[in-house]
Design a protein that fits this description.
3-stranded antiparallel β-sheet, 135 residues, 3 strands, Arc Repressor Mutant, subunit A, 6 helices, mainly alpha, single chain
Length: 135
């Protein structure tokens, strides 16, 4: 297991690109963000275009162009970014891909439900501004 929480690379890059914009005074170019995050600039540009289409970023053209946050980073939760990029959190009722328990009262099913609630609460609470403080 290489991850404790299986957040996609797309969501991870999106959150960190927004955080870099915040740390950079509210805006950043896709190229600069890609360099800092060590990802492909075309890959990150697509993510930032999607975030712009969803209303979290405003694109600016020309020399010094890039993307600017449309609202304060304190008002953007990591859950909002995840939802905008991929839809709602996936539901897991079992650690297996297909539930094997017959009763529906398995201790691991309860663990999955509790973990999902905690993850949702954490992602709602953690803001892009909090992530930006690490830059």
């Amino acid at each position: 297991m290489d991850r404790i929480v299986a957040v996609s690379d797309t969501v991870n890059a999106g959150i960190h690109a927004l955080a870099l914009a915040e740390a950079n005074g509210g805006s950043i170019s896709a190229r600069e963000a890609a360099e800092r995050l060590q990802v492909s600039s075309s890959y990150l540009a697509k993510i930032m275009q999607k975030l712009a289409a969803k209303g979290l970023l405003t694109p600016t053209r020309g020399l010094g162009g890039g993307y600017a946050l449309t609202k304060p980073a304190e008002q953007i939760s990591c859950l909002e970014v995840l939802t905008l990029l991929e839809g709602d959190l996936p539901r897991r009722e079992c650690l297996f891909a297909k539930a094997v328990c017959r009763t529906g009262t398995c201790a691991l099913r309860t663990f999955c439900a509790d973990t999902e609630k905690r993850l949702r609460t954490a992602l709602e609470t953690i803001t892009v501004a909090a992530v930006a403080r690490s830059f």
